[in-house]
Specification:
alpha+beta; 261 residues; endopeptidase fold (from Nostoc punctiforme); six-stranded antiparallel sheet
Length: 261
């Protein structure tokens, strides 16, 4: 019997061990017992979400997106996430983003038109003055070069840090492990050039309202996704991001089953 129980426990833990996603143990309360929470990548309307129009957005909102390209698929595969890009909404139908050609500002409508999925999150409690500082800094960075070295260095870091996120590792130990790896593997990355999520986090830092105490060079779009309310972040946020809604969602194609021979 004991061997069967051990086998069952191993079978239950195997998916977590393979994915090495962040976990959190919640102690018993009056309404629930001991609970293990696991990082979730599920993000779709109909699963607690909703489709919204651009008029619902507020300046400073963070848009996470994915598109049907090889680069996007590679990022999503490497980060075990449905998102591959992060964008900062400036207000008045304009966004700023860091892409391969550098930092640029452009209409939100172009992003919604091009991407397969666009989902918005909000940092609660932003003041008008914070938004103005963010917008001013973001516009001043238009034309700044893309942090290609940072992206290349980030790829092995994302994979290696999965060891720090093995199930049941205490969050303090996991954070120390990730910090140590980042210092070694990302030390040569530029902080005066930007990739997408680094740019968004730097905009918040420049406005005096950092989203996380971690270096922006450590953070991927997938990390921002897991900073949402109700999820388990790999990199701690100063406060959880609030889900606003999906501006666009195209579900992944479903492969049809083979018909009778």
């Amino acid at each position: 019997m004991a061997s069967l129980l051990r086998a069952a426990a191993l079978a239950a833990a195997l998916p977590l061990l393979l994915s090495a996603c962040a976990t959190r143990i919640e102690m018993p309360s009056e309404t629930s017992g001991l609970r293990l929470r696991v990082q979730s990548s599920v993000i779709a309307p109909g699963n607690g979400g909703e489709l919204i129009g651009a008029d619902v957005l507020a300046p400073g909102d963070i848009l996470l997106t994915s598109i049907a390209t090889v680069n996007s698929f590679g990022i999503r595969l490497g980060t075990f996430s449905p998102v591959s890009h992060a964008v900062l909404y400036l207000g008045d139908g304009q966004i700023a983003e860091a892409v391969g050609t550098g930092v640029r500002a452009r209409p939100l409508a172009e992003v919604v038109d091009e991407e397969q999925m666009v989902v918005a999150f909000r940092v609660p409690g932003l003041l008008t003055a914070d938004v103005e500082k963010m917008r001013e800094w973001a516009n001043s960075q238009v034309g700044t070069r893309y942090n290609t070295a940072g992206v290349l260095l980030n790829a092995p870091f994302v994979l290696n840090r999965r060891l720090c996120e093995l199930p049941l590792i205490p969050s303090a130990v996991s954070a120390y492990c990730i910090s140590g790896l980042a210092t070694v593997q990302l030390g040569a990355s530029r902080n005066d050039q930007f990739f997408c999520s680094q740019f968004v986090l730097e905009a918040y830092r420049q406005a005096g309202v950092p989203i996380t105490d971690a270096d922006p060079r450590w953070v991927s779009p997938a990390d921002l996704l897991h900073m949402r309310e109700g999820d388990v972040p790999s990199i701690a946020a100063t406060q959880p991001l609030r889900y606003v809604g999906h501006l666009k969602y195209n579900p992944p194609p479903v492969l049809a089953a083979d018909g009778p021979a």
